[in-house]
């Protein structure tokens, strides 16, 4: 699917069987995670199975090369500051954390607090996709990531430590 345009990729991802390279799938996944609108997602569904050719090469040899995608921030700095300020107000019962896999999600109580804090009716509606993404990043930054262990700040730039 590497040579396809966005619309062709969307159609390909709707198919029951998809042939692709691991890096193309990885980058499309990352691109989806920086989208602001749900309509712009390439991968609109979850997949149940994967058949991976040369899995040893992918998991061992290519695992040393991280997939990193970057681009200009699409939201104003205030948007991120508000998400960070919200995350810092939360207590343990407001989120579910797994330090081993470095994942964190809002609990039902946390969702209610977010909806009150941001004065919205449904955090998980399509129009709040960007906000939810910022909140998840803020939660990870506040409760999981450790400065000088997971990342460094050098000349006002954040550098990820592998």
UniProtKB/TrEMBL annotation:
Protein origin, superkingdom: Bacteria
InterPro entries tied to this protein: Helicase_ATP-bd, P-loop_NTPase, SecA, SecA_DEAD, SecA_motor_DEAD, SecA_preprotein_X-link_dom, SecA_X-link_sf
SMART domains: SecA_DEAD, SecA_PP_bind
Sequence ranges assigned to domain Helicase ATP-binding in this UniProt record: 1-91
One Pfam family in the UniProt entry: SecA_DEAD
Gene Ontology molecular function: ATP binding
SUPFAM superfamilies tied to this protein: P-loop containing nucleoside triphosphate hydrolases, Pre-protein crosslinking domain of SecA
One GO location term (cellular component): plasma membrane
Domain SecA family profile stretches: 1-162
Single Gene Ontology BP annotation: protein targeting
Keywords from the named record: Cell membrane, Membrane, Protein transport, Translocation, Transport
Annotated protein name in UniProt: Protein translocase subunit SecA
Protein species of origin: Jujube witches'-broom phytoplasma
Taxonomy of the source species: Bacteria, Bacillati, Mycoplasmatota, Mollicutes, Acholeplasmatales
Encoding gene per record: secA
């Amino acid at each position: 699917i590497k040579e396809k345009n966005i619309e062709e990729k969307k159609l390909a991802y709707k198919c029951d069987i998809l042939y692709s390279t691991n890096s193309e799938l990885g980058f499309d996944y990352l691109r989806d995670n920086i989208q602001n609108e749900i309509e712009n997602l390439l991968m609109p569904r979850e997949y149940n199975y994967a058949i991976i050719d040369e899995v040893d090469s992918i998991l061992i040899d290519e695992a040393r090369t991280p997939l990193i995608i970057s681009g200009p921030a699409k939201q104003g700095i205030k948007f991120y500051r508000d998400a960070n300020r919200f995350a810092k107000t939360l207590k343990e019962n407001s989120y579910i954390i797994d330090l081993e896999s470095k994942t964190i999600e809002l609990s039902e109580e946390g969702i209610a607090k977010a909806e009150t804090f941001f004065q919205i009716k449904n955090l998980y509606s399509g129009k709040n996709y960007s906000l939810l993404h910022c909140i998840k990043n803020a939660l990870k930054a506040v409760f999981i990531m450790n400065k000088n262990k997971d990342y460094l700040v050098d000349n006002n730039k954040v550098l990820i430590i592998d």
